[in-house]
């Protein structure tokens, strides 16, 4: 990195640190909210797919189609319906994040051995007790893997959300593109990468803490 570029980056953090921190905050808020809502919807839909088999094909097919649509295309398709700003950006991110959580929830719940459920019912558990005390705990590691995949997709795609006025680190990148400023492109791009790595590490640590038995002896 040449000295002039380094000076530009230093000057940015000296003069615009407030704007930078606001962009980071916006990026984190929209990402966390989108992940929370998509996790809730994805897990509920995943459960419905396993108890109402006739809907499984339609629900999974719908979200698989959404998954292959480019993130930017979904954002722009929502503009005529919802306008610009925070709301359409959230909607697009939620739609993009549901598929991995949904697929992993279905796979996790279907992998619960039948004898475990038979044992649960044999000791007098109701359907809800079997779900909360047997099925979800056993499916949880796979569900969390889906949540991790969704989280990384959300952090990356939230960059594009700036294009429709949702703010975040993407606004720094698009400003850099508009002004042809390498320093802003580096600051925005590296910040998104660091945020993605950070959220991945947090979820990895959470997995190791929640499912210690998986790592016993390693």
From TrEMBL:
A Pfam family: BPD_transp_1
Q: Which Gene3D superfamilies match?
A: MetI-like
Q: Where is the ABC transmembrane type-1 domain?
A: 24-203
The organism sits in which domain of life?
Bacteria
A single cellular component GO annotation: plasma membrane
Q: Name one GO biological process term.
A: glycine betaine transport
List each coiled-coil range. Answer: none
Provide this UniProt record's keywords sorted from A to Z.
Membrane, Transmembrane, Transmembrane helix, Transport
PROSITE patterns for this protein = ABC_TM1
Bilayer-spanning residue ranges: 28-50, 62-83, 89-109, 154-178, 184-203
Task: Write down the membrane topology.
Answer: Multi-pass membrane protein
Q: Where in the cell is it found?
A: Cell membrane; Membrane
Q: Which InterPro entries match?
A: ABC_transp_perm/SBD (IPR051204), MetI-like (IPR000515), MetI-like_sf (IPR035906)
Q: Which protein family is it in? A: Belongs to the binding-protein-dependent transport system permease family.
Database matches in PANTHER family: GLYCINE BETAINE/L-PROLINE TRANSPORT SYSTEM PERMEASE PROTEIN PROW, OSMOPROTECTANT IMPORT PERMEASE PROTEIN OSMW
Q: What is this protein called?
A: Glycine/betaine ABC transporter permease
Q: Which organism is it from?
A: Paenibacillus borealis
Name the lineage. Bacteria, Bacillati, Bacillota, Bacilli, Bacillales
């Amino acid at each position: 990195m040449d000295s002039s570029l380094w000076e530009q980056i230093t000057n940015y953090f000296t003069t615009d640190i407030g704007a930078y921190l606001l962009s980071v905050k916006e990026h984190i808020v929209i990402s966390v909210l989108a992940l929370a809502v998509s996790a809730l919807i994805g897990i509920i839909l995943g459960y419905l797919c396993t108890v109402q088999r006739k809907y499984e094909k339609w629900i999974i097919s719908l979200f698989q189609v959404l998954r292959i649509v480019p993130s930017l295309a979904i954002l722009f398709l929502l503009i005529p319906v919802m306008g610009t700003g925070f709301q359409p950006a959230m909607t697009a991110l939620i739609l993009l994040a549901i598929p991995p959580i949904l697929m992993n929830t279905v796979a996790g719940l279907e992998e619960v051995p039948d004898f475990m459920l038979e044992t649960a019912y044999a000791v007098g558990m109701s359907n809800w007790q079997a779900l909360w005390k047997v099925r979800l705990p056993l499916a949880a590691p796979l569900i969390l893997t889906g949540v991790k995949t969704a989280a990384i997709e959300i952090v990356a795609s939230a960059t594009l959300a700036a294009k429709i006025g949702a703010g975040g680190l993407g606004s720094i990148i698009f400003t850099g593109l508009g002004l042809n400023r390498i320093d802003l492109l580096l600051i925005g791009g590296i910040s998104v990468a660091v945020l993605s790595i950070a959220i991945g590490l947090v979820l990895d640590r959470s997995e190791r803490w929640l499912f210690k038995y998986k790592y016993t002896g390693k």
